[in-house]
């Protein structure tokens, strides 16, 4: 199909020609209507003047009476036609007055010079009166049209005077309230409707007089007694002296909308309550100044109170676990002093003896008045799962320690055997000194002292091994990292000597404490040192080096670092990413759990462990642990245990 050859300009020109033709037809139709109007009005006017003239002549009326009747006819005819027609009818009236009522009658002569001004006065008066009547008629018609427009609206439009009496009542008001206009005119508006105001009526009147307008929601009562919610708008009309004359009140019935909004709010509240129930999350509000506390339904469930109880901070404190009371009191005190956000965990001790774990998150919504809104999350299930996971990790760590002790059994036996052998030797020597005559008691005393020393040494070694093997719960406390390093080295000293590895300790002085479990941290240090020893086993082309370094930074929040460094074979690129994975090992007889357990232990202490190759040979493992600050201790121990 060939495209149209018409251009946009030609189409616009065609449309313009069509519009011009339509306008011409309308103009022609208007001219025809005007001619038809004149064809009807003017003959009717002439006939009317003829009848008026005949009646005046037949009744023998004088010129003055005829003027009044003619003026009435002119005014009437002017209302149905234009002002130009009024001028024409005035000229006809003057002709009739002069011809039929002048002296002598039935002539067109002016009887006297004084008669001409009379006719001119009549003409002027007729035109003025006609103009005024036409203007008043137009105003009246405009008012009627406006009133009819006001009746078309669905809104209520009511006008009341300064005394409050109804002076106008549109059809919208009739439809909504049930009273007809003639029934309510003159009655006091708000007494009739039994209006309920959102604030005192005097306050509304003050705003209206001050600004000239007011808007708000009212509750009005219909004729049948039903109450409706009205969005009302008031406008004040003042007189020339500035005094209030009337008030126009327009209103929109928003009852159905308010009901829909309320239904939506209830629906949202229902869904919110159900969602809070499913997520074990409650909401609350707290006005510190007044002390008032507001709870959602789920918050009542979490704290174990009936919903008819008026919640207070006292009700909260009654449920706080005794070990957490001081911490919660401190948080409440901080919030009362202007801290604008809260985020902490604590426990509840319920009346049935069970323990709940809660997380509280809130922020100030009005900082000046210290009003808070927040959420209460029951994290008991998550915390119990976390505790079970920690128990499993602790048990796995213990099993790994036992495996490690098995690997070190020969060294441990040698460490225990040395002091036992020394003890036997000292005991035999002491017996020989006693058998002398006289006995050499000083030598016996020296031997016994040596026996006690070696026995204590054996006891310490056995104690360390027993501690590592024992199944104890995690016990975190503020500890000295340097002590952990020294104790760990003492336990594996024989293994270090057996492999012929020189160990260098670079322990920083005045090192801040960390909040950790002593046994677990010893396990990490021993594991990393043993890995370093094994990495040096195959090194023969250079002096072997192994060091343990502890350090921290100058800032108050700088962490404490334990670094184990060797100059062994290092870490290959393919192994670097999998180094801390469970069951990953590069040793023929290894289980692949050592570094994985170290990683879990350090993470449980809110720390990190990392490994990197050195610039020359070997690798460095670093354990980064937070300092034992009050905030850090609280974060680590949120689960309610010491660990």
TrEMBL record:
Its EC number is 2.7.13.3. It is a multi-pass membrane protein. Residues 212-266, 342-391 form the PAC domain. Keywords: ATP-binding, Kinase, Membrane, Nucleotide-binding, Phosphoprotein, Transferase, Transmembrane, Transmembrane helix, Two-component regulatory system. GO terms for biological process: regulation of DNA-templated transcription. It holds the Pfam family HATPase_c. The chain crosses the membrane at residues 40-61, 68-95. GO terms for molecular function: ATP binding; identical protein binding; phosphorelay sensor kinase activity. Residues 411-629 form the Histidine kinase domain. It is an enzyme of class 2 (transferase). Residues 142-193, 268-339 form the PAS domain. Its main location: membrane. GO terms for cellular component: membrane. InterPro entries: HATPase_C_sf (IPR036890), HATPase_dom (IPR003594), His_kinase_dom (IPR005467), HisK_dim/P_dom (IPR003661), HisK_dim/P_sf (IPR036097), KdpD_sf (IPR038318), KdpD_TM (IPR025201), PAC (IPR001610). It is found in: Membrane. It catalyses: ATP + protein L-histidine = ADP + protein N-phospho-L-histidine. NCBIfam families: sensory_box. This is histidine kinase. It comes from Paraburkholderia humisilvae.
